[in-house]
């Protein structure tokens, strides 16, 4: 049995037990013989606009799946003490892959690998203007002007920062780029692309904004390569381009 519903999601903070964030959104629920399923669309409030979230409760297991601008699958068992340990994060309104460690050891090893630039991170971006060179490297130090400054700039006193890019497709006054980070500075791709005169479409801080094209920055973390913390096996993961970026590319052809 499937019905439309109004779904309420509450988030609690470990730092402040009195801090509760509640989001109410339309969705659907399905009640089967052995499971309960709820499906709803994320919004800008959660920072995952363009993502469909599915919650499935069966026996003593809760499964959370997200598909769209963010893709993830997590499973929780009743009575299990679960702590989510993020190894890396994405800028708000950037879609794609993140690494989540299941235990402190994995978090320590992966975080160390991340700091030593041993994790290969690949992105897809849609930028303003036609990039002439088929491929290139942006080697420009990134600097935070003041301690309370959100925006970063290219400055001689900044941290060494290297971004490699390759043209995937040239569009109407826009270009689809594949990017590989050699370093991992805050806002690195966004700052570097602005520096070469090709800001990311939808980026309110560094790029070109046209809400008729897309309502967020067109930047997607599509590939991660790293070693399994214990076995040292080479792992590779990819997340397909989200619908809003696919639609943006179609509009610009």
Detailed description of the structure:
The chain has 253 residues and is mainly beta. It folds into 2 domains: 2-82, no CATH class; 95-251, Pseudouridine synthase (2-Layer Sandwich), CATH 3.30.2350. Helix content is 11%, strand content 43%. It has helices spanning 104-115, 188-195, 243-251, and strands spanning 2-12, 20-31, 35-41, 51-58, 61-68, 72-77, 85-86, 95-96, 100-101, 120-128, 135-139, 142-143, 153-154, 162-171, 174-181, 219-227, 234-238. Strands 8, 10, 11, 14, 15, 16 and 17 form a 7-stranded mixed β-sheet that branches. A 6-stranded antiparallel β-sheet has the order 1-2-3-4-5-6, with no helix packed on it. A hairpin with a 6-residue loop joins strand 16 and strand 17. The chain is globular, with a radius of gyration of 20 Å. The relative contact order is 0.14. The model has no long low-confidence stretch (mean pLDDT 87).
Which keywords apply here?
3 helices; mainly beta; Pseudouridine synthase; 253 residues; 7-stranded mixed β-sheet
Tell me the overall shape.
globular
Overall tally of domains: 2
Q: In angstroms, what is the radius of gyration? A: 20 Å
Question: What is the number of strand segments?
Answer: 17
Helical stretch tally: 3
Major sheet size, sense and barrel closure: 7 strands, mixed
What structural category characterises the helix and strand content? mainly beta
Q: Kindly state the mean pLDDT as a whole number?
A: 87
Low-confidence runs of at least 5 consecutive residues: none
CATH architecture of the largest domain: 2-Layer Sandwich
| CATH superfamily (homologous) name of the largest domain | Pseudouridine synthase
Question: In angstroms, what separates the terminal alpha carbons?
Answer: 43 Å
Helix percent reads 10-25%
What is the highest CATH level, the class of the largest domain?
A: Alpha Beta
Order of helices and strands: EEEEEEEEEHEEEEEEHEEH
- Amount of beta strand: 35-45%
Predict the CATH topology of the largest domain: Pseudouridine synthase
